[in-house]
Amino acid sequence: MDIIEPLLKWAGGKRWLVKIIKNIIPEVISFENYTFVELFAGGAAFSFKNELKDVVLNDINPHLINFYFHLSKGRSIFDANIEFLNDKDIYYKNRERFNDLIKKSEHNTLEAAALFYYLNKTGYNGLIRFNKSGLFNVPFGRYKRINYFFDVSKYYNLIKKWRFFNLDFSKVPISSNSLVYADPPYDVEFTQYSSNTFDWKEQVRLAEYLTTLKVPVILSNQATERIIKLYSKLGYKLFFEDTTRYISCKGKREKAKEVIALLNFDKGT
After folding, report:
1. Tens of pLDDT along 224-259?
2. Could you tell me the pTM of the whole model?
3. Residue-range domain boundaries for the chain
4. CATH classification code of 77-152
């Protein structure tokens, strides 16, 4: 059976980490027995690659959630009247149209969802970045070849029962049968992927909030010294994985260490 891959490029995406996390989790844990909650959806790699059916996706980026929402209703973004071409002039034309929709508060339309997908696939390094006015400002990406099209029905059949939220992570409804995955922006200098910022105070607020939950929690981040100290102090069980990743503001790869932090898995079944 073909593995369903995430549709979007995403800075800090976790495609590579999915198998590692599954190997870390106790064998008695079956993800299918839980409502899987992604507090920072992004590319939603874990939910897609594991083909989970009972999923709550949340993200502070309304354009991302709008894309997933329309897909979950079986609406093909390719029905929108836009040009899916890897062309510089077309890219800036579509970027301008996307920003016009934002200015007119029409960012929740099918057209906006289609433009968001196109810009993500075509823009520089897969970045999703907005200025302080909330307008998309990523430049053209100059890829040699881009495959824009995908089997809409395959994704619709997977996510048609998923639930979507555009909320602060602490406001997302979490049932007693949830398994929560939090993948916040990395604790690095460059963290502004939207008009909002996720600074150190937010890192602390998230880590502390998750300790108040009575359900299994997975938290991943870049293993900076202060992140390790914070998670250890709060009682997380820590695992580490060496990796390389793109530094988004520089467009180059650097060695890094990932930390996977677990809570409440001794209570899970």
Report:
1. 999 999 999 999 999 999 987 655 455 556 678 999
2. 0.92
3. 15-60+167-263, 77-152
4. 1.10.1020.10
